[in-house]
Amino acid sequence: MVATTSPVPQKIDLEVKSNARWLVMPIFLTVVGIALWAWVSAQELDSIEQRTLNAGELTARVIEHLQLAAVSTLIVIALAVPLGILATRRAARFVAPVVLMLGNLGQAIPSLGLITLVVLAAGVGFKSVIFGLVAYSALPILRNTMIGLQQVDQTLVKSARGMGMSPMQTLLRIELPLAVPVVLAGIRTALILNIGTATLATFFGVQALGYVIFQGIQLDRTPVLIVGAVLASGLALLVDYLAGVVEHVLTPRGL
Amino acid sequence: MTATDQIAGPGASQAAATTAEPMIRLEELTKSYRGQKKPAVDRVTMDMPRGEIIVLVGPSGCGKTTTMELINRLIEPTSGRIHLDGEDVTTADPDTLRRRIGYVIQQIGLFPHFTVGENIATVPKLLGWDKARIGNRVDELLDLVGLDPAVFAKRYPKELSGGQRQRIGVARALAADPPVMLMDEPFGAIDPITRERLQNEFLRLQQQVKKTIVFVTHDIDEAIKLGDRIAILGEQSRIAQYDTPANILSNPASTYVEDFIGSGASLKRLNLSLVGDVALDTGAATARIDGTAAEARDTLESSGRSALLLLDGQGRPQRWVDARDLDRADGDLRRAGEPVSALVDTGATLSYALNEMLTSNAGVALVVDGSGAFQGLLDFETVMVTTRSIQRDSSDFYRAAKAVTD
């Protein structure tokens, strides 16, 4: 019997190229950061501008922003992934349409309106904003979990069951690992939605990066507005980049 | 020894030696689906003897795959009993049951995120074997299917060819050394040349592992080649005939079976008889190729044959010479006459021998043993006599059987 060898040299070349790809975004963000800092340093800041544009204040806003996005995304993962799994189980398939409808509803309503409704019901504050973000970003994770599991080759499931894996073992060892890329893509989308929508939190008493932008508009201070906007965008790009790295690392080999 | 015995081959002798207790016994096994008038599988009763390859063959949609999946209860039977190795497993825990039954499907179903080694280790892991034992077993199985463990254990399925994947699929099914294997068209999606090679490997492997194998196919030729016993299934998995390939070819139980075997049953039968089983012409004139032309001529003349076969020191056929060739030989026989062709092993099938004779245009095949030493000649006439005697026997039998039923 002849053992064929796989074409290795070509692969190495591709790997070098794809590794270089990972450097583009960090370099871009660093350049933007330095440019922003240089530009702000060159400005004569008045006292109002100085109150917002200092390291301590900006760091606090960024942290607040990240907290909103992180907490809401974690809650969505904890809710939507199990729901998505449940909705694809043979015995509980009837819940799928209901679950999807709720997710669709959450995303169809404009985010500002949705959070406003939540705040009207529960009052302003961190928790209300989180609730709104969760409702808004549930759909991508829910849908991707379901699609990710549904697109797993059914012959693999049959094979696993035929070899004596229980339904739970089949789910944990075969179906979920194979669904990981699609589920992670959904989580990444939800995270980006939450990072973006978290800027609106300023209207409900949470001072994230939206607060900086809003101050710039209200007080008519262009440097403040620009710093807020660039930070919010840069943060979104950075988080998306990091999520991409995580996705790459967690995708099972062999796929 | 009658002709029917001759063509029965290894399967029949094995069947005769089988103990009374079958490895798998299906009793009145039935599967009905809701909303369908007729059951998909209707009261199938079968005994599958230990260590044999039992082929379920039938047209698509006849329920052969369903029947197979009833055995490991991937499909739960509506009624009837399943016995495995004397034990009623109809209501046993299905997961535990399946770990005792190897399983290969047409798509092979290797897990793409597992390495080859991890794929093979699937069932041993479920059974809780320790790491060292699993590692040894994986290496052993890769060796068994002819793939180097050092090269392949760490590869992923996407890095393998179709034939290699198929071998890994078989290795994975054998991992926990189950007494029974279920194989659903395992060679179905493979090109004809690779399929032929994998089938031969599979038969060789079975010689070593001696499992009870239930094999599903829609290809009657594959069934004849691989099966110790063949069950030809009709609609609703009803058994039209369940017998050795030789008996099915010689005595088809119904017109349905005849139609399913199709034309060329006589040619198919040639697949079942081995060259070593028929009477060879052992009276050929032979001489040593390093001998003299004069000696050779004496032998040829005294034999009364028209040509003489020159053998080397180990008795292996080298060249054909006739009287005129010997006259022109000038003492050196090494360049006299023509080189031999159509060499066949005693283990080859008559079908193969006939094919060799036709392609080499020799009219006669030179039968050699495992080391290549000359055993005798096989000519068209012998093949035809063998075929005819099988036919006559079977048609007598068939007529007799019909007379009883009429």
UniProtKB/TrEMBL annotation, chain A:
Instruction: Give the way it sits in the membrane.
Output: Multi-pass membrane protein
Q: Domain of life, per the record?
A: Bacteria
Which InterPro entries would you find in this protein's record? ABC_transp_perm/SBD (IPR051204), MetI-like (IPR000515), MetI-like_sf (IPR035906)
Gene3D superfamilies tied to this protein: MetI-like (1.10.3720.10)
Q: Where in the cell is it found?
A: Cell membrane; Membrane
Task: Check the record and name the Pfam families matching this protein.
Answer: BPD_transp_1 (PF00528)
Note whether Iron occurs among the keywords: no
Where does this protein have coiled-coil stretches?
Answer: none
Q: Which UniProt keywords apply?
A: Membrane, Transmembrane, Transmembrane helix, Transport
Q: Which residues form the ABC transmembrane type-1 domain?
A: 62-243
Bilayer-spanning residue ranges: 20-40, 66-86, 98-123, 129-149, 193-214, 226-246
Task: Tell whether Ribosomal protein is among the UniProt keywords.
Answer: no
Family of this protein: Belongs to the binding-protein-dependent transport system permease family.
> In its UniProt entry, what is this protein called?
Permease
Q: Which organism is it from?
A: Actinoplanes couchii
From TrEMBL, chain B:
Q: ABC transporter domain: from which residue to which, for each copy?
A: 24-261
Q: Which InterPro entries match?
A: AAA+_ATPase, ABC_transporter-like_ATP-bd, ABC_transporter-like_CS, CBS_dom_sf, Gly-betaine_transp_ATP-bd, P-loop_NTPase
What is the name of the protein in this document? ABC transporter ATP-binding protein
| Family the entry assigns | Belongs to the ABC transporter superfamily.
Top-rank lineage group of the source organism = Bacteria
Gene3D superfamilies for this protein: P-loop containing nucleotide triphosphate hydrolases (3.40.50.300)
Q: Which organism is it from?
A: Actinoplanes couchii
Q: Which GO terms describe its molecular function?
A: ATP binding
Taxonomic lineage is:
Bacteria, Bacillati, Actinomycetota, Actinomycetes, Micromonosporales
Transport as UniProt keyword: yes
Entry annotated with the keyword Transport: yes
List every stretch annotated Disordered. Answer: 1-20
Give UniProt keywords alphabetically: ATP-binding, Nucleotide-binding, Repeat, Transport
Pfam hit, one: ABC_tran
